[in-house]
Amino acid sequence: MTVRPLDGIRVIDAATIVAGPLSASILGEFGADVVKVEQPDGGDPMRTLGTAGPAGDSYWWWTETRNKTSVVLDLRTPDGAESLRRMTDRADVLIENYRTGTMEKWGLGYQALAVRNPRLVQLSVSGFGRVGPLRESVGVARIAEAFCGLSSMTGDPDGPPGLSGSAALADYLCAVYGAFGVVLALRARETTGTGQLVDMALTDGVARIMDEAIPMAAALGDERPRLGSETHRSVPHSNYESRDGRWVTIACSNDRMFDRLVAEAAWPALTDPRFATNADRIRHRAAVNAAVAAWVAELDATEVVARCDAAGVPSAVVATVAEYVAHPQTRARDSVVDVDDERFGRLTVPGVVPRLTATPGRIDRLGARLGETTVDEILERWT
Predict the structure, then answer these.
(1) For residue 83, what are the domain limits?
(2) Model confidence, pTM
(3) Are 168 and 259 found together in one domain?
(4) Is residue 277 domain-resident?
(5) pLDDT in tens, 186-213
(6) Which residues contact 287 (CB under 8 A, 6 or more apart)?
(7) Residue 143 and residue 29 in one domain
(8) What would you give as a GO molecular function for this chain, any one (predicted)?
(9) Is 41 annotated in the active site?
(10) Three-state DSSP class for 214?
(11) Which of 67, 129, 324, 344 could bond 201 through an S-S bridge, CB–CB 3.0 to 4.6 Å?
């Protein structure tokens, strides 16, 4: 097997649900030896969150807690806490997502652990981070999205604030930034010789992907309205229903794209002089969308996409998840892969991201069996 970038890195995943555990899974895909610490009485609640799979645990559990072994420890007890200390003495990374102050209450705060192992890197995930007036407040993904203003921009103009496409978007963003932070801290350790605390709030990733919304609000007091499936910055940039009842997304991000669409469509309504520039089209948003919708309604979805593609206009049929999984492009990139498991056979799951060409990651196994290993076995492996 090829060498992976994080071979030899030892990670303890003492987090639950999504953000922290997914950070650990990402590290594990690229070679880290990841041990998941689970509390007694059922382990990580994610085992039962979502749709139950063929072996009892949820499909969400199988796909997002890959490449780990599981040990059961009650960190609330002196014995459990001491077992974690023994493990962190030999670990490179500890990941946790308890409410700020909880690990310190158990004698497992970063400062205490770093005295024993100065090279330790700790990723701490919480709703609002470890500083500020909300540092001890409870937060989950949907709360983070509401707090940052993302929810206020999501939904139909005349409806309530909506929910992003994934109910755990904030978790996934936090997981990616968290894993990135761990890798940066490990790289810094090569120079400094010491680890550090990586402090991630669920709100951090959400705020970072909101394009110009934050500087606009701060500088102009401009709050973006809810626009349904549209965007504030470009028109046409929406979903349109085709003759065969499918929806097609067309995204003209600039005037050149729109001019190519007009030439390809040869649809008189699109040549309206009011549509000359993107600024003009934003002012006449409803009229532009009506013209595009009328053209798309005369064609089947695949024909719309083929004609847009020929003209260099970004478009796609709005696919179902099943259609995405079966698409040749998806399979060509290993964006989804089939994993065989002795517990339930074959399961199709998202592939490894990012795609490295020389030292790629891989999926060695799906969700761990609860309590399948012991602290002594881990310490022996990490000698």
Answers:
(1) 10-209+351-381
(2) 0.94
(3) no
(4) yes
(5) 999 999 999 999 999 999 999 999 999 9
(6) 272, 274, 275
(7) yes
(8) CoA-transferase activity
(9) no
(10) helix
(11) 129
